[in-house]
Amino acid sequence: MKVSIYRYNPDTDREPTMKEYEVDTQGKDLMVLDILALVKEQDESLSYRRSCREGVCGSDGMNINGKNGLACITPLSEVAPGVKEGKKPLVLRPLPGLPVIRDLVVDMGVFYQQYEKVQPYLQNQSPAPAIERLQSPEERAKLDGLYECILCACCSTSCPSFWWNPEKFLGPAALLQSYRFLADSRDDATEERLSRLDDPFSLFRCHGIMNCVSVCPKGLNPTRAIGHIRSMLLERGV
Amino acid sequence: MSIRTITFDAIVVGGGGAGMRASLQMAQSGFKTALISKVFPTRSHTVSAQGGITCAIASADPNDDWRWHMYDTVKGSDYIGDQDAIEYMCQVGPEAVFELDHMGLPFSRTEEGRIYQRPFGGQSKNFGEGGQAARTCAAADRTGHALLHTLYQQNLKNGTQFYNEWYAAELVKDANENVCGVIAFSIETGETVFFKAKATVFATGGSGRIYSSTTNALINTGDGVGMALRAGVPVQDIEMWQFHPTGIAGAGVLVTEGCRGEGGYLINKDGERFMERYAPNAKDLASRDVVARSMMMEILDGRGDGPDGSYVYLKLDHLGEEVLHSRLPGICELAITFAGTDPVKEPIPVVPTCHYMMGGIPTNVHGQALKMSGGHEGEDQIVNGLFAVGEVACVSVHGANRLGGNSLLDLVVFGRAAGLYIEDALRQGMTQYEPSNDDIDAALARVNRWNDSKGGESVHSLRKELQTTMQNHFGVFRKGDLMEEGVQKLADLRGRIAQAHLDDKSSAFNMARVEALELDNLLEVAEATAIAAYNRTESRGAHSRYDYPDRDDENWLCHSIYDPRTKQLGKREVNFKPKTVDTFQPKVRTY
User: Fold this and answer.
1) CA-nearest residue of chain A to B514?
2) Å between B315 CA and nearest CA of chain A
3) Does this complex have an ipTM over 0.95?
């Protein structure tokens, strides 16, 4: 099958190019990450991030035939009709909207800064008990769909609001994390967390486009989390 | 060659659970701490831990006792775990786990609001007399992910200085073998730096990638063990590799033991629940070494399924959709993605898969690395300046076989212990050893060797050959002549890897260079494993030999010590002197 990969090495290239490779899959429905490994056997200069190869570390987010996803849990059969059969090329590009360091590796700096801005850690002023802080199963259930985020950046880099205002709009991943702590019964910094989001950009630049939801490889729903924060902010204003 | 020097009180190499627990401890007390990680920390392999963290927090059972946990761990280790270290881990454990809750780890909960605990293999109440215990604290089946993210968040809060996507290539020592820091380079820019510190903490994790089939992440290449061995630091019990019973056949992806804890069980191609024959009491929740061997016997006896009869099944459908989706949601996803089966409806094809390195750099309970006065034998001596925690270390709490859920506890307890010790030492004034320029150049030699390479074989073909050799010669069952052949093959590979070729010499995000340097480390770990396995002439825990089928307490109730300088295997005493409880005497180990 044919694979077309975005190549750019700042040491040697003046501009990026799409490079074509031919890979023999023996008809198997391999993961995109397996294809990258086969290409790298032909051309060791290809760089991409990878670690767990099972969809939990979030290293290998990339743009696969136009859609962001994790290479390690995207089988060829799910990329687009005809790709697995070799009728259409597999097209791999770096995540959009972030500077490219090399090949499929992007500079995630802005993305991580957004994460840090929401103070993504539990805050509780009361002294810790000798055992755990009690939390009911119902309270704990509110964290499901939030804490599972793997920081792969597939969502934020598919979001037009993020593309336009990456410095001011926090993006879906960071906002999901913000709500993960707002929703935690053990956290008591609700007021401070909300006040930090109460400006025209940080949160309110979300226009509910829902690209984040359609690409999230973990099936999470940042738009819904943003909606919850929005409601909390509105209630607080009343 | 002159390179930039950056100075810290302490540096931690590795951003998994152990490394971040250590760095957190030191950063909280205001010491200048750097964490060097070859991946962004939340991409470390701790993220893949599923089932939980075993600890007697007395939630599932209010009468639970850390001494019972200690008994299980000593027995699980097949009696070569150090009892003082196991005692420390089990006793301090609850405090370390409650701290994780206070940091925000989203544990699953009981109706009482306490942390949810599930049964895991090898767990008992009342020193093996009271039946199965439920002692593994869980955040659904994503406990490692939850733990790793929580620790990263706390390190952010406390100002740890991260060097993410920096690759530590070599230890720097002075003329007296004291450790002064490491040579590392930025993967992004290629800039090479000497990180100088009073304490260098290795938390580089395991090295499952020496095998071709492993649950381990692609990054688990034994970098810490490789650096230690090249620096002349020995490794202990390195022949002890855990094969996890339930890796997804073909893919190698892990399926947590928690599945069996929640009531799942293994069946052969005839649908028989075969563990009832091998471990009549504990059945599917016997220790991992026991279950893995039983599965291999079924497969070798022709009761495996699939085109080559090469796997058995993990049956979960009887648990019902609700339990599976609430307790084991991640497993459902993985099974669908990597096995094409929905566990709600069908069993998952599984096979024992390389999972965990019980051996590693010998340390005391403070994480201080140890060497032997006579190389492979003699008295313990501290390697000044060097610490090791987590999977790279052998403290030893796992001995010849680790119990499920004990690795996460090991990470937080000993990451914390090393941090506490270093904090204290820094307050009292710790020596900064100073290397000469020659010492630094010596450490740079390996990086330079690849940068200057011309011609020779490729990294990926050599790596594949190494992995196949380990898989075929040092698997679940081992045999003297086959291992001897394996040792020879690795000696041959050593010569060829020394001549291998790195084609891409560019500086920006050059992953080919990283993979070349990782190959050196894989070789060090593989060779140490091979020589130690060949020379331990008995069967104990995960080390199982056809030619020496029995445990030999007369000769081998001890640690093995592999000295990289002479390639000799020596013996080191196991600690049988816990401080607050009576010694657990070795017994016949049955489940």
Assistant:
1) A47
2) 21
3) yes
